[in-house]
Design goal:
By secondary structure, this protein is of the alpha+beta class. It contains four helices and 13 strands. The strands form three sheets. It has a seven-stranded mixed β-sheet with strand order 3-2-1-4-11-12-13, covered by helices on one side. Strands 9-8-5-10 form a four-stranded mixed β-sheet, with no helix packed on it. The mean pLDDT is about 90.
Length: about 200
């Protein structure tokens, strides 16, 4: 099945020119075409349409602090009543009774990353529970890298990652042009997070 993602602005990379009223055509887990919406819609009238009104569609982000955020911080469950901000783990590791232990914490941390348009993160991951959660998430795991700009280690914003290209894996994020808020994250052609 073909899906056409339409956005007010398509920014295929940090260096390529943006396309006003652009679109990405997805087939399975791959990008089948990129370009002006009118051209792609005319060429593929049977494609399912996802409209991202007032949005900017870009490559997803890469989280350079993936291992730190998932293995050395606890992401509280809202049912605990202690807030939602990640907390550094004490030297003893996870306490008994923390919701889902390392795996549950990692799943909540991964959800935060997806809500910020992350499509890849740096490893390696030592804990089996964290590796399993990352594997199930669909996020691509990258070798450790230094971010091109200093980032706060607990910021879930990710650095730009790659270029959208025909034949490439359909990993991208959609952001509100006015607020910068992530409206959606697509991994391997699947919408895995939708805001609003």
């Amino acid at each position: 099945m073909l899906t056409l993602h339409r956005a007010a602005v398509l920014a295929p990379s940090g260096t390529a020119p943006s396309i006003d009223d652009g679109a990405v055509l997805v087939h399975g887990d791959r990008i089948a075409a990129l370009g002006p919406y009118a051209e792609l819609a005319a060429a593929h009238p049977d494609a399912r349409l996802r409209e991202w009104t007032g949005a900017r569609l870009t490559p997803g982000g890469a989280q350079p602090y993936g291992a730190l955020l998932l293995e050395h911080h606890y992401h509280p469950d809202p049912r605990e009543g202690i807030g939602v901000e990640p907390r550094p783990l004490p030297s003893g590791g996870f306490a008994a009774g923390q919701y889902g232990g390392p795996g549950g914490s990692a799943r909540r941390g991964l959800q935060l990353m997806l809500r910020h348009g992350t499509t890849a993160l740096a490893g390696p991951f030592e804990r089996p529970e964290v590796r399993a959660a990352v594997s199930r998430s669909g996020l691509r795991v990258l070798a450790p890298f230094d971010p091109p700009q200093p980032l706060h280690a607990l910021a879930f914003e990710a650095v730009p990652n790659g270029t959208l290209a025909v034949g490439g894996r359909a990993d991208f994020a959609i952001f509100d042009r006015e607020t910068g808020q992530c409206l959606g994250t697509v991994l391997a052609g699947r919408l895995v997070y939708r805001g609003r």
